[in-house]
Amino acid sequence: MATNFGSHRTVVGAHYGWRDWLAQRVTAALMALFTLVVLLSLIFSSGPIGYDKWAGLFSGQCMKALTLVVILSLAYHAWVGVRDIWMDYVKPVGIRLVLEIFSIVWLVACAGWAIQVLWRL
Question: What is the pTM of this model?
Answer without folding.
Answer: 0.82
